[in-house]
Amino acid sequence: QDNGFEQFVINYCNEKLQQVFIQLTLKEEQEEYVREGIPWSPVEFFDNNIICDLIENGSRGILAMLDEECLRPGAVSATTLLGKLDQTCGGHGRYESRQTQSARRLHDASLAPHCFRLHHYAGKVTYDVSGFVEKNTDLLFRDLSQAMWAARQPLLRGLFPEGDPGKASLRLPPTAASQVKASVGALMRNLYSKNPNYIRCIKPNESKAPMVLAPELVLAQIRYLGLLENVRVRRAGYAFRQLYGPFLERYKMLCPRTWPHWAGDERAGVETLLSEVPLPAEELAFGHSKVFIRSPRTLFALERRRQERVAQLATLIQAAVRGWRCRTRFQRQRQSQILIAAWFRGHA
Where in the numbering of this chain does the Myosin motor domain appear (predicted)? Predict the structure, then answer.
């Protein structure tokens, strides 16, 4: 019920992770269909970039305002911070406070005078600004870190590398908000450089009791995690896509015209291959550089046919090798018999 600076930081990180999820599973997938020339009706979804920008904008974001207020000379308090946020973010559609509500002629008794509210992707959250400034400026003083670095214990020296006089800096230590922003930025760069997979955990009930399912709670989580839009995109889209070259190399043994080698264009080879396989036309789509298969059932059928064909080819190879070995052995025995017979006649 009471959300402070820590919950604000946690929700900011959740918004950034949700942004990666939206970017990789909703936005990029639909863009790929358009890029590949596949007929596609766009599925509408909410892009939470507007919320992330409200929090982390370099000059007018909430984190920037918080750092600016902490570094400002003079008396600084939660009231002055809230006033600065109202002045800077008051016109944003995802931010509200008592002052912005009064300007819009609204009245909400649940919003206290010392709080502001953000419309997050997963719903509205009210934050109490009390303690924001103190927790953001909770710095480790330079003389304390130097004292720890001067200790004889190697563990302490390793825990406080900033206390090394040779690396001492006259710059102010970074605030908690700037450290969180830098850490989240490094996490996002790491995730965008990979091909992440997602496991969404759904809480079945609030009491953590076994074998109890609260449908309203589960539905709310599914809606707030963006899973409804994701399911709509997956159902309307294609479960499997692959470049023409690797696809043709893997399944070319299913068609006599593409086995063992196809000398023409890769897309033409894939179309020739799939024309020999009894698959429904609506299950396949041919893009500029990739082949798309709609349902996993179709892909499993292709894999099963490939396994059967590989077994047939292995049997054919084994039969050819056995025939060669038997033929070679027979020819050697025949030559030996002729030689023995010739020597025997000469001796007789």
Answer: 1-307
The torsion angle over the Cα atoms of residues 304, 307, 311 and 316, rounded to 10 degrees, is 100
Q: Where in the chain is the domain with CATH 3.30.70.1590?
A: 238-347
Pick the CATH number of 5-138+175-193 from 1.20.58.530, 3.30.70.3460, 3.40.50.2000, 1.20.1050.10: 1.20.58.530
Contact call for residues 113 and 98 (beta carbons, < 8 A): yes
Continuous H helices in 4-61: 5-22, 28-35, 49-56
Buried b / exposed e across 281-296, counting CB within 10 Å, b at 16+? Answer: eebbbbbeebbbbbee
Q: What is the pLDDT along the chain (348 residues), one digit of tens a residue?
A: 788 999 999 999 999 988 888 887 778 788 888 888 888 877 787 888 899 999 988 888 898 888 888 877 777 777 888 888 888 888 888 888 888 777 676 777 778 888 899 998 888 899 998 888 888 886 667 778 888 888 888 898 888 877 777 776 667 777 888 888 989 999 999 988 887 777 888 999 999 899 999 999 999 888 888 788 878 877 778 888 889 999 999 999 888 888 888 888 889 999 988 888 888 888 888 989 999 988 888 889 889 999 999 999 999 999 999 999 999 999 999 999 999 999 999 999
Q: Which CATH architecture has domain 238-347?
A: 2-Layer Sandwich (3.30)
Contact 21, 198 (CB under 8 A): yes
Q: Where in the chain is the domain with CATH 1.20.58.530?
A: 5-138+175-193
Interatomic CA distance for residues 316 and 321, integer angstroms: 9
Q: In sequence order, what are the beta bridge partners of 117? A: 96, 126
Residue 119 near residue 81 (C-beta atoms within 8 A): no
Sign of CA dihedral 138, 144, 145, 151: negative
Residue 119's SS3 state is strand
- Cis-peptide into 260, omega within 30 deg: yes
- State pTM to two decimals: 0.69
